[in-house]
From TrEMBL:
Spans through the membrane: 49-70, 101-118, 130-151, 157-175, 187-207, 234-253, 274-296, 346-362
GO cellular component: plasma membrane
UniProt keyword Transcription, yes or no: no
Gene3D superfamilies: ABC transporter involved in vitamin B12 uptake, BtuC
Protein known as: Iron chelate uptake ABC transporter family permease subunit
Native organism: Actinomadura rudentiformis
Molecular-function annotations in GO: transmembrane transporter activity
Membrane association type: Multi-pass membrane protein
Domain of life: Bacteria
Short name of one Pfam family: FecCD
């Protein structure tokens, strides 16, 4: 038998004292260790740096647009032409290249913003300013004015084209269901009106040779007919559409997640889509009226920007407002130099650049889907 001394004690073992480790202060004069920057702040810094880079790229393309042409100018000559009325390049810069550059700046920003707004409002990644029939409405109004009213002034095209674009936008919204419109209904209504109006345009142009001759240059899309009066007429519409698009950035972010989610977040999908159509009409109608239907700019740039910023329109729209005119003016500069002494219209260059991108995008989506 074991003695009581050999038996295990039934009393509980005392708990080990808990030691609290306190932060040891750094030595006097030594810098405190810095906390790692939050993830959101680094992303904000990267996007801000990218926005600054886009601005610098736009400024570089603006300088090229003023310097490159049938008569090349150095940057010093361009500057003298801008500020000194007695310089040899003053007439070339002020009367020819400055209006063309400003119009390209406005039209490019308008097309890029309208494409981004349309893709978000319709939730269609292939959304383009021609999706809702706006280009077709503007073209139908212009060819009607030329054929039936004998309109021959380019500055007169602006008002008819803008009125046609606005009328078609209202018709698309009404046919698509009004306040109950859905992205699918809007896209179908726009496609139907687009086909009908372009059929009408082709019929009028085939029956009226004078209308064909006057419309041929406009329908290709060009900045060569830029005039200070054209810039002044389209500027208010582009500015109004720009402001409205920026205001709609947050509601469109909510609508992009679906109608139920948008309502849960406090946004009205019907009102947001109606306002988006108004913004697209102001932007794309003014751009189409000024230089004709130019395609692929509103499709390419939002997708390129989305790869950099993500789907947040609060960042996408400023990027599109800078990179779209850079692409537009860059295509215009390419068109001036590849066929000297004549030039290739900017609408042709954007098609050549945008066609391969469109095929790549469709093929990429098919690969992802499979």
């Amino acid at each position: 038998m074991s003695s009581p001394r050999d038996r295990p004690s039934s009393r509980p073992c005392p708990k080990a004292p808990q030691v609290t480790l306190s932060k040891v202060p750094p030595p006097t004069g030594a810098p405190a260790p810095a906390d790692p920057p939050p993830k959101g702040s680094s992303r904000y810094a990267a996007r801000s740096a990218g926005l600054l880079g886009a601005l610098l790229a736009l400024l570089a393309v603006l300088a090229l647009s003023l310097a490159v042409g049938a008569k090349p100018l150095s940057l010093n000559e361009v500057w003298q032409g801008l500020v000194d009325s007695g310089s040899p390049g003053y007439t070339v810069v002020h009367e020819m290249r400055l209006p063309r550059t400003l119009l390209g700046l406005l039209v490019g920003a308008a097309l890029g913003l309208s494409g981004a707004v349309m893709q978000s409002a319709t939730r269609n990644p292939l959304g383009d300013p021609g999706l809702l029939g706006i280009n077709a409405g503007a073209a139908a109004a212009v060819v009607s004015a030329i054929s039936f009213l004998g309109l021959s002034s380019f500055l007169g095209y602006v008002w008819f084209a803008f009125a046609g674009a606005a009328a078609v936008s209202v018709a698309v919204y009404a046919i698509g269901g009004g306040r109950t419109a859905t992205p699918t209904r809007l896209a179908l209504a726009g496609a139907a009106l687009n086909a009908a109006l372009f059929s009408y345009v082709n019929a009028v142009m085939l029956l009226d040779t004078a209308a064909l001759d006057r419309m041929r240059f406009w329908t290709v899309g060009s900045l060569a007919t830029a005039h200070p009066g054209t810039v002044e007429r389209v500027l208010p519409f582009v500015v109004a559409g720009l402001v409205l698009s920026l205001v709609l950035a947050r509601p469109l972010n909510a609508v992009a997640m679906g109608d139920d989610s948008a309502r849960a977040l406090g946004a009205d999908p019907a009102r947001t889509r109606a306002a988006a159509i108004v913004a697209v009409t102001l932007l794309c109608g003014a751009a189409t009226a000024a230089c004709g239907p130019i395609v692929f700019v509103g499709l390419m740039v939002p997708h390129l920007v989305r790869a950099l910023t993500g789907p947040d329109l609060r960042w996408m729209l400023p990027y599109c407002a800078l990179l779209s005119p850079a692409l537009m003016l860059g295509a215009d500069v390419i068109g001036r130099v590849i066929a000297r002494p004549s030039e290739v219209q900017v609408g042709v260059v954007t098609v050549v650049l945008g066609g391969p991108f469109f095929l790549y995008f469709v093929r990429r989506r098919r690969t992802v889907a499979s």
